[in-house]
Amino acid sequence: MVRVNRRDHVEWRAGMTVQDVLDAMGYDYALLSVFVNGTHVDREDFATHPVPDDAEFEAVHLAHGG
Predict the structure, then answer these.
(1) Of 25-29, 46-50, 60-64, which one has max mean pLDDT?
(2) Do 21 and 10 contact (CB within 8 A), yes or no?
(3) What is the mean pLDDT of the chain?
(4) b/e string for 16-34 if b means 16 or more Cβ within 10 A?
(5) Which of 16, 27, 29, 34 could tie 22 with a disulfide, CB 3.0–4.6 Å?
């Protein structure tokens, strides 16, 4: 199980990546910062960065405006 933003959960599976978690949660924001177990993951690594079982996953939507 992967805990997302301290409140939601995604069923873990072997080979799971950051992008898999984002897809499962329906997160498609252009400006996201992602942390897996407290470590920042660069956007270009979302499709390849592994997410281990029992991970703490945080996806922070960076708001902007004027």
Answers:
(1) 46-50
(2) yes
(3) 95
(4) bbbbbbbebeeeeeeebeb
(5) 27
